[in-house]
Amino acid sequence: AELRARATASKTRVSPLICFVPADAMARIGAEQEVENLSGLSTSPEKDIFVVRDNGTTCLMAEFAAKLMVPYDVSASNYVDLITEEAEIPLARGAEVRGKCDTTESELQISWLDKVYTLKLYFVKESHNTTKRQEAVWKMNKIQFVYDSSERTYFRDAVNPGKHTANSHHLSALLTPAGKSYECQAQQTISLITSDHQRTVTLLLSEVRIQPFDISADFVFSEEHKCPVDEREQLEETLPLILGLILGLMIVITICIYHIHHKLTRFPRKSQKGF
Length: 275
Description:
Layout: H1 2-10, H2 23-31, E1 34-37, E2 47-54, E3 57-75, E4 82-90, E5 96-101, E6 105-112, E7 117-129, E8 134-148, E9 163-167, E10 173-177, E11 181-184, E12 188-194, E13 200-211, E14 224-226, H3 228-266
InterPro entries: Lamp2-like_luminal, Lysosome-assoc_membr_glycop
Transmembrane segments: 239-260
Domain Lysosome-associated membrane glycoprotein 2-like luminal: 45-215
């Protein structure tokens, strides 16, 4: 509710086009909705918040911390051999955001440093067969990262610098029942392969809360579906407490039984004499 109130006051919208546009172009424009970068409202300096809206209604929300680990070559000290370094590229706070929403497909595109870096997340909603019935679910089915190793902020003295594209392959991540948001505080690792199949780029996601479909209220996530890692960690945190309570209860019961037994054996009932 707090995010909803603050977002309403700070949101920016895409300006309408006041000109003649052909029908097919209008269809393409209509497919791309209003987008808002609300990362400034995040309580965590590493976590970003993105919102896509359609006809004034929120259709996609995403909160997460992300960074990409990108290997690249530099010259060795002998200027003959090559050694591999790794650039650690965080998601920038002032990123430019674009997005699309549909009933079964959604997309979030994030660019920063004058579009030198672009991260694209694709989501799909589909039917999933269960033992009892077909159940609607959504998942993240594709990730693409475009980067330029000639950029000097994160790439230092790269050999043969240039633009590269890394894609996920056969991705099926964040599987969530339809109508719910996905939540995972634990860090998740997703591998992306460059188009020349020479490098593996690693995407690290944490503090994730995403819902690309079926949002019922503006700036408000639906009920969360926790990832297995979070559920296991929560169980590991609560299990010692539960076991401690059970042990304490057993000790109390044992003491009570001992106390009652001690009283009964200390003061035996006197036998009644006949007349």
